[in-house]
Each structure stands twice: as structure tokens, then as C-alpha cells.
Amino acid sequence: MYRHAPWIFASLIMTTQVQADWWIEATDLSQKADLQLLADYGLILQPVNTYPLFWPGIKQDLDALHPSQLTQEQLLAVRRLQQSWQQQQGSFNAKAQIHAASDSDNYKSFGEEFTDSAAARGSLSFQSERLSGRVTATYHSTDEQGSRTRLDHSYMAAKLGNWVLTAGRVDQFWGPSWDSSTIMSHNARPLPGISLSRYNSSADSLLTSITGPWTFTSRFARMEELSAEEVAQGAINNAQVWSSRANIRPLRKLELGFSWVMMWGGDGYGNDLSDWYQGLFRGGALEGHENMLAGYDARYSDIWFDRPVGFYMMATSEDFNRQKYKLTKVSYQLGADIYLTEIKSRLYLEFTGNNAYCNDIEKNNCLYEHDKFLQGYRSYDKSIGSTYDNDSLVLQTGLIRQLENGANWQHKLAWIRLNVDGADRPLPGGNPISRGRSATQYQWQQSYQHLTSYGDLKLGTDLIYSETPAAGEKKWDTRLFVNWSRQF
């Protein structure tokens, strides 16, 4: 399926009109805070909880605003977003990044791009009216997720009316969380695949008149070639992954998202579109060998005492009980946030519970697991969903502070309970972060990011206290990290 992608793009006619990058990626938490602030005020009318987030609808809303009618914090957010859009203009853009840390990181939250102790990345992108592309090469200090040199985040995209066809490795992040998504995050390496996405979420259509602005994306991807040991343990090699999401904004105060993912095919099974159709509509966990996940999320925003507030939730299910007509094996994410105008900061509180009930009695060891795809919903031993993997409980609070000089502070305090029952599915499944034992962690992370004349510089510290009763361990870990990037 994927081998024909270059011929599809070669058949398109490239024009010379220059545009900005077509989408916003899940690489900047402060930018997400700006988007959410304007959405809470009703100044951005587009759905903002599906990444990649396409620019056209966002830019349309920004251009419709009148600076004289905005408050100071609104105007600063608009200017930062306009500046980000402006920086991405040009027929060709180049970017260099360097990451260094005193240790590797087990977790990868929204806005974070690296988890290993050192990495260097270079990318070259181009945009025209109908085509967009990027070549990215990264050298990592470890080969834990494949080779040290990778072409992740490289892609070719073509505009077909109000739709964009993309081939390559592009990160996705679905849902309203400030930390991690339970169904589709950028915790694992992006899978190679082909996607079709709606370009302008506010474009007129019959559905827009009913749902308000809406986004839709659907993707066919393939997982990695597994090791001989994993295949011997029963994992299915070269599994296929289909994913799809719709995001709507029926009211200014309400945003809804609906997600569906299916693992199917692989070596020894059918991998054609007819097999996908059979698995999606006539198979599933009860009748076939496919591994299905589905979920929904919602965010309600309002203005209380002149301060934007938001309440959000996400539910992700492994199965659907057709006899009782309800989702089963469900993980939940609940959160609330408020923008403190006095200190120009977003304060949030978020809980994630991934210790799903497998049935009416048994609990744990079923989310992101499967009886056929024994490796589970993971790529290179990293969950494609929550960065904390299954059977975990996380309670955290964070503060995202925007400074007038363009810099930002980010703080996070978290209580993390990993592998709550201390048990796992046999290899190659199971929670890889704390395999076979329960652990409790207390985390304090803070970072400072500032754009200098030499590039964008981010400095941070990560302090974690861990208790592992089964091993009798109590220890402190300190991690220092620095990220530098520059666009040319």
C-alpha cells in the first residue's frame, strides 16, 4: 500500500505560490496554551485538540480579530501565534536542533521532542500551493527504538481541494490533555503511513452547518519489523494500524472529539483493503483477531470572574460489549484548568487512570494488550497511547507562564503510580516502564524557554523520588536537560 505513495505525489502538478507550513505540531506546550486561551475566549472558533493542527482555520480566525478590541493577554497570544506562522513562511526552511541531558527520560509529554540523553537533528522543508514536504534526519545517542540515525518527522503532502494527502512519519496527538493522550500521543516513534486530513476546518459544507467547524483525519500505517525473539514469543510482525479521528466545535464553549484505532493484518494475515474492511465492520475483538481501541473526549470552556476556565475529559476503550452496548476496558482522563490573568499563567490539574477493568470482576493488564497482537498497542516497546502505559495512576498539576518578552516558564508536579498491581502480561506484552513490579514516583519538573539572537534555548530540571517496594528501593534521580534550535 505505502510503496505507491511517491507515484501519487509525482502525478500532481507543483506550482510556485509560496505558503506557510500547513500545520502546527505537538512540539510546543506554550503555543498550545496560546491557542487554548483564544479558544476559551471564543476568539478562535476552530477545534484545537487534534494534532497536526492545520493553520488555515486558525489563521482565518486570527486575521478577523481587531487589536483594539483585545485585552493585553489576548493581544500577546495573537502576536505570538502570528509570529509563529510568519516564521514558517518561505519556499524553503531549514532547522537545526541539539538536545543534551544528564540522563534519559521515561516519559514524553506534550511539547517534548526527545527522551534520550543526547540527539542532533537537522531538517529541510519546502511549501508551495499544492505540495509540502520535509526531510528530517536525527542522530540519537541510543538505539533503543531502532537505529541511532532516523528519518522520523519526514513527509510529503499534497493538497487535494480541501483535503491533504500525506505520506511519511508524522507525529499525532489527540485530545485535550496538557500531558499525554490515552489513545494517540507522540510517546512512541511516529509510524510510517499515509493519511488523509481535512485542510480548512471552517470551510463551508453541509456538515459544518450542523457541527460547526470540524476536522477529520484518517491514516493507514505500519508497525516496525520485530526481532526474532519477539516473533518467537508470539508477536505479529509488520502489523498494520488504521486510525481515524473527528473533532467538532458545535458550540463556542464546547469541543468534542471521537477516535477509533485498529491493529490488523501483519505477517501471516490479510493486509489488503478488503481485509481492513472485514476487520473494521465485521470483525473486532469478539469475532476476529483485530485489536480495536475507541474513545471520545470533550472540553467545556467558560469565563468565570473574568478568567477563562476549562473542564475536560477523555475516555479510551479496548473493547465494545455488543450484548450490553457499552464500551469496556476503559481508561479515563479528567482535568480542569484556569487562566490566571494576574500572572499570565495557565494552571491545570489532571488525573489519568489507566488501570481499566477487564470485565465485571478483573482489573488491570488489559489496556493496550491483546490476545493476538501480543506486543500490544506499542511500537519499539513504547506505548502509542499514554506515556505511562497501562495500569498506571497519575495526578498532576502544572503551570504554564507566558512572559512579555516571549519567554515562558513551565512547572509540573506529579504523583505517578506505575503498574499498580505489580503484574504483567507475558513478554512481549506488559508495561515496559515498570515491568513486573509496582512503583510510586513523585516528580517535579520545570523548564525555561527563551528566544535569543542565537536561537531558541530551553533549559530544564527534572527531580524524581521513586519507591519500589518489591525491590526495597528508595531513590532520588535528578535530570538536567538543554534544547537548542534555530531556524534558517
For the largest beta-sheet, the strand count, sense and barrel status come to: 18 strands, antiparallel, barrel
CATH class: Mainly Beta
Helical residue percent?
Answer: 10-25%
The gross shape turns out to be globular
**In the CATH classification, which architecture applies?**
Beta Barrel
Count of distinct structural domains: 1
**Tally of strands:** 25
Secondary structure tally, helices: 7
Report the sheet-strand fraction: 35-45%
Helix/strand structural class: mainly beta
CATH superfamily, by name, is Capsule assembly protein Wzi
- Alpha-carbon distance between the two ends: 35 Å
Give the averaged pLDDT, no decimals: 91
User: Which ranges are low-confidence, i.e. pLDDT below 50, for 5 or more consecutive residues?
Assistant: 3-19
- From the alpha carbons, calculate the radius of gyration and give it in angstroms: 22 Å
CATH topology: Porin
What does this structure look like?
By secondary structure, this protein is mainly beta. The protein has one domain (2-487): Porin. 13% of the residues lie in helices and 44% in strands. The strands form four sheets. It has an 18-stranded antiparallel β-barrel. A hairpin with a 2-residue loop joins β19 and β20 (382-383). The longest helix is centred in the first third of the chain and has 16 residues, at 72-87. The protein is globular, with a radius of gyration of 22 Å.
Q: What's a quick, concise take on this entry?
A:
The chain is mainly β and 488 residues long. It has helices at 5-10, 29-40, 55-63, 72-87, 208-211, 228-232, 273-282, and strands at 23-24, 50-51, 53-54, 92-101, 118-127, 131-140, 149-150, 155-160, 163-169, 173-174, 192-198, 214-222, 240-251, 254-264, 291-304, 307-321, 326-340, 345-353, 378-379, 382-383, 393-402, 408-418, 439-452, 455-468, 473-487.
